[in-house]
Design a protein that fits this description.
The protein has 72 residues and is α+β, with helices and mostly antiparallel strands. The protein has one domain: DNA Binding (I), subunit A (Orthogonal Bundle), CATH 1.10.30.50. The chain is built from 2 helices and 2 strands. Strands 1-2 form a two-stranded antiparallel ribbon. The structure holds zinc ion.
Length: 72
């Protein structure tokens, strides 16, 4: 498991705990099932966004793909 996947797990679990099992998609706002969770850079790395927790959010895989064409 990659470091980003570990970070994703950590963020997912943290948000789920804070929101009583709900993990809203950063793109569409709907709940993200664990199997569909991907990690999103709020500010793209190509625009200087960091990989720190405050620049990362959970989104659906399909929402993530719609937003950025390049694979992570
Ligand atoms: Zn979504």
């Amino acid at each position: 498991m990659s470091r980003l996947n570990l970070t994703r797990e950590k963020i997912y679990k943290t948000v789920a705990r804070q929101l009583h099992g709900q993990v809203p998609c950063w793109v569409c706002g709907q709940h993200v099932p664990h199997a569909e969770a991907t990690l999103e850079h709020i500010q793209p790395r190509s625009e200087g966004g960091s990989s720190h927790l405050e620049n990362l959010a959970i989104s659906h895989g399909r929402c993530n793909q719609q937003r950025q064409v390049r694979p992570a």
